[in-house]
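Handout, section B. The chain below has 368 residues.
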Amino acid sequence: MSTTPAHESTLQNVERTKTVGTAAENAILAEDVVEPDAASTTGSSGTSSRPEMKRVVILAGGLSHERDVSLRSGRRVAESLRGAGMDVTVLDVDASLLSALAADRPEVVWPLLHGASGEDGSVRDVLELLGLDYVGTGPRASRAAWNKAIAKNVVLGAGIDTPDYVTLPQSLFRELGAQPVLDAVVSRLGLPLVVKPNQGGSALGVTLVSRAEDLPRAMVDCFSYGELALIEKAVQGVEVAVSVVDGPDGPHALPAVEIVTDGPYDYDARYNPGRTNYFTPARLSAPVAARVAQVAVDAHVALGLRGLSRSDLIVDPDGVPHFLEVNVAPGMTETSLFPQAAHAAGLDLGGLYRQIVAQSVGARVTAI
C-alpha cells in the first residue's frame, strides 16, 4: 500500500506526462492530472474519511492505430477512480514501463490499451511474468477474443448465432489472383458483405460492401490494417453493444446501447460527437432485450473472459441477436459505449470502476 501523499503523487504524474508522446498526446494526459478535492478525501477533522486508497496504474497509449483512443480512455477512468478515492498513475507502454512498475509496484494494473498489444494478450502475459494483478481477461482468452474468427467459432460452439464468414490472408490473393477469389466469396456469401481486419478495433479498415465492384477496394483498405481479412455476410437490423461486468454473483449485462449513424459506424462516427445517435437502453422489446443480454453474458462465459467485456451484436427483424465480435478492453472515452451503459443502469462510474479494480486483486491466474 502506497503512503505517498496525494500532492506528491500528482507531481509524479506530471513528471511522467512530460515524457510521454507528442504535444497533443501530452495535452490529453495532462488533463488527467488533477489535484484531489480535499472535501472528498478528508472529514471535518482533517483526517481521511475514506478507506485507505489502493495503488492503481493505468496503462494507456501504446503504439497501435488506436493510441489516441487509449489515451482518452485512460484519462477518463483515472478521473473516475480518483473521484472514488483511489491513488492512480497513468503510464504509457514504452521502454521505461517495466522499470517504473518494478520501482513502484502497484496493487493493480488496468490495461486500457486498444489494438494489438493491448488486446492480444501480450501485455497481460508480461504482467503475469511480473506477478502483478491486473484488471480484465487473462492472456490466453484475450488472444482468442482478439482473433475475430476464433471468437466466432467459440460462440458458435456455445449455440450463439453469428453471421456466416470466411477468413482470407493477403498472400492468397497474390497466389490465386484477386478476382477469382472475390467472385467465389460473393457467390458463396452473397451481398451485402462486411469486410474487416480479423484482428483490430475501432472499425479501422472496416467496409460495408453492397456492390461486387466495390469489394476489391474494401480488401485493399482492410489489408492496410492487417494481413488477414474476415469477410462476413451483412445482417440487416439494429446494431447494439452490450457490456458485461463480473460481479459477486457472476457476470451480468448492463443495458444495451443502440447505435444509429448517418452512415457507416466507422472511426470518425465512434469518436467524434455529432454523427451518431445512441439510445440507452436500446429500443428493444423486453423479451428481445433479455435475449440480447443473455447472448452477451453467454459469449463472455464461453470465451473465458474476466472483469469486463463488450459484445457487439446485430438484432435482425425477427428479434434474433447475431454476435459480431467482443472487446476485452472496451473504450472508456466520452463517447464510448461502456460508460453510457453504466449510466443507463444508474451506476456511478467511480464506484463501478472501483469495484472492478477491487475484484481484480488476487484474481490473476498465471498463464490463463
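Note. The first strand starts at residue 55 and ends at 59. Compare this with the example in section A.
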